[in-house]
Amino acid sequence: MILSCLHDVRLILVTSLAFFCAGMVKASPTLPPHGARSRPAEFPVVDVPSHLNPYPDKPRLTFSSSGTFKLTVFSDLHYGENPWDDWGPQQDANSTRLMRSVLAAEKPDYVVLNGDLITGENTFRENSTTLIDCTVVPLNEAKIPFSSTQGNHDNQRNITHLEEIQREQLDSYLSYTRTAPPGIGGEGGEGTYWVPVYEKATDLTPALILWFFDSRGGWSPGPTSAPLPDWVDATVAEWIKHETAVMEAGWDSVEKRERGALAFVHIPPHAIESVQKTLNTTVNPGLNADTLAQGSTQATADPSSAGNDQPFWDALNANIKNLHAVISGHDHGNEWCAREPSKDVIFCFDKHSGYGGYSSPGWGYGVRNIIFTSADPASGLETWILLEGGQTRARVTLDKNYDR
Ligand SMILES: *[C@@H]1O[C@H](CO)[C@@H](O)[C@H](O)[C@H]1NC(C)=O
Ligand SMILES: *[C@@H]1O[C@H](CO)[C@@H](O)[C@H](O)[C@H]1NC(C)=O
Ligand SMILES: *[C@@H]1O[C@H](CO)[C@@H](O)[C@H](O)[C@H]1NC(C)=O
Ligand SMILES: *[C@@H]1O[C@H](CO)[C@@H](O)[C@H](O)[C@H]1NC(C)=O
């Protein structure tokens, strides 16, 4: 029973996990996370609507005392390929090794799992969510708060985004993943939410909002499985307008301060496809080995859906102020950042982190690191690719002058 990534009673439910997350020790997910500091008890409770305090039972995420906030993004982990063969479980053991070594070396304040946590096509109805336990183990061990988006491979006949989110929430107190309100996100698109980050634990209002959007895709569950739309649903555009209005009304009445923002969505917005044609390796360094085509960006799997991610893309850029960047995975051979000219917004690819999922010799496996060196939303941030062996590349400073 020591060889399990499960916490307490659920051990009984999924003992087979011992074989799948082999070598993973039980970790307590109940300790306060690294990077998260509790609000002092004596601090006066400020009357902001409860809606603006979405994590009343979790520590507040804050910048460090020296004013930094560091994120590490694991993307496209693709756990669970061919469990009936040797190579699938070996890939997963490698992915877990990568997560552990990166977390130990980088000690980020927050981790994002940016979609395709598992390869749902290869999973079984009765135990597919046990793979989520495996993705959470290294985070529980390192005690680092995190949240996830879900990808097209996370919606399949035997698994759904909602099932993954609920399992993750059960697995870890450190998970800040939430679901969108009822009616928002469309079928298979529940993983849309935001996470506030405060400069200091005692601050009245946050300095940074992390936004997470569900770009759906994949297949609906069950025997009558059908393709799901591969774009962020138009209802999310309305939700963005609503949330930003509530934030402005609630927070700005308490304290007038600008907030920064960073957005994560698994499948890149369609507007990114044309950006690839104008890359300059000096300004936009990093692997550029995946030519964006049908299926690479939102609303392209079915040509008749062209333009369907536009309401989301418009609302995101019109309503979320001080948006530092939009960050996606999905295309494993791309690592670059570039400015999207029509919205004047920076886009970055992640780094393929999982040994599962498609790859090519020389691409390697790693993460995208992001560091804020100030809570001032006018100041830029630094980002770079870190490979499993420790090599770094494609370091850029994302600020108002980047890629003009
Ligand atoms: C696991 O990682 C090792 C060391 O990098 C590598 O040699 C091996 O091919 C990987 N195995 C799989 C199945 O990905
Ligand atoms: C889904 O799960 C069922 C039950 O374990 C299994 O028979 C089937 O092969 C799985 N995969 C798909 C794609 O249906
Ligand atoms: C899930 O169940 C299938 C079929 O019983 C088995 O082959 C597979 O190894 C199990 N996977 C996990 C992650 O427990
Ligand atoms: C790429 O950008 C660098 C730095 O701004 C510039 O010097 C160079 O001329 C650009 N290359 C091309 C082909 O535009």
UniProtKB/TrEMBL annotation:
Pfam families: Metallophos (PF00149). Residues 70-333 form the Calcineurin-like phosphoesterase domain. It comes from the Eukaryota. Residues 1-27 form the signal peptide. One of its GO terms (molecular function) is hydrolase activity, acting on ester bonds. Keywords: Signal. InterPro entries: Calcineurin-like_PHP, Metallo-depent_PP-like. The keyword Signal applies. GO terms for cellular component: cytoplasm. Transmembrane segments: none annotated. This is Calcineurin-like phosphoesterase domain-containing protein.
